Amino acid sequence: MNGTDSINGASSTESDVKQEQKNLSSKNRNEISEHKQGIKQLQEELQFHKQEYRKAKEDFLKIRNSIQREELDLDSEEALNATKFYLNSSIEYMIAHLSYVKSNIEYSKGSGTEEKIVDIDKNIKLLEIERTNIAKASSHEELVVVVRSVREIWNNAEKTSLSSAGETVSEKIGESLKKSENLSENLSIKVEDMKKTGVNTAELETELASYISYIKSAQEKKEAADSIYSSENTTREDLQKANNYLRQSLNDISKANKILRKMFGELKNYEIERDKGSEVNIT
């Protein structure tokens, strides 16, 4: 009786675990679906504000040309309205971009997520304050002050945006490299076992060495990028350099994967030939 209870209990526990995994899987699918829908909406808003910004910029440049030809006064109503429309469109575009970045950071759940979100929210609020200052401005001089403030806010926000995007990519690269390192160890054992049975593994060994070399290079470039992201007082140029390191790292991983596919093909052919040999021996 107790034995039956134990078996039933084990079966029940296994069933509960499977059901829990199913629920988690369903929850993950729902989260992914909701994120995709949210991102799609944010992308549409970003595209809309981008187009509005471009239109406003065109109008502003026409007005500026008229001012330079002394056909309009800097503080004329037409000049002020065009400048205000251009600045407001710029701010709306910036806020849409930051909202898009914020959504991706929230979904990635990477390191320092809360701090980055707080920083983005702070910059969005500062931009909204400047939007109010634009409405209050009554002269070209007052709008110049707003422009300087908006530029400073955007420079800070852009650094957060660049570093957040880079760190998210770096984390994904790290996950890929960890799997690659485990895979290279398994391949090394496989090739060594084949060599012991008398198989000519010279080509496989060369390919494996190249694969490991690319993975090592990708890791080094990732670490170079991470070093910049973790530094204080990084400039926009520093972050662009870090992002370039990540592009190089991804390129190394791509080359490594190309070698890997070739090795898998060769190993599969070896196994097919080995199995054929076994069949002949059995016959």
Which descriptors would you attach to this protein?
mainly alpha; disordered N terminus; 0% strand; 6 helices; disordered C terminus
Radius of gyration: 29 Å
How many domains make up the 3D coordinates? Answer: 2
Classify the secondary structure makeup into a structural class: mainly alpha
User: How far apart lie the N and C ends?
Assistant: 51 Å
Set down the secondary structure blueprint.
Layout: H1 2-68, H2 77-108, H3 113-136, H4 140-196, H5 202-229, H6 236-282
Question: In words, what does this structure look like?
Answer:
- There is one protein chain.
- With 283 residues, this protein is an all-alpha fold.
- The protein folds into 2 domains: 21-138; 171-282.
- Helix content is 90%, strand content 0%.
- It contains 6 helices and no strands.
- α2 packs parallel to α4 (140-196) and α3 packs antiparallel against α4 (140-196).
- Mean pLDDT is 85; it is low at 1-14 and 279-283.
Summarize the structure.
The chain is mainly α and 283 residues long. Helix content is 90%, strand content 0%.
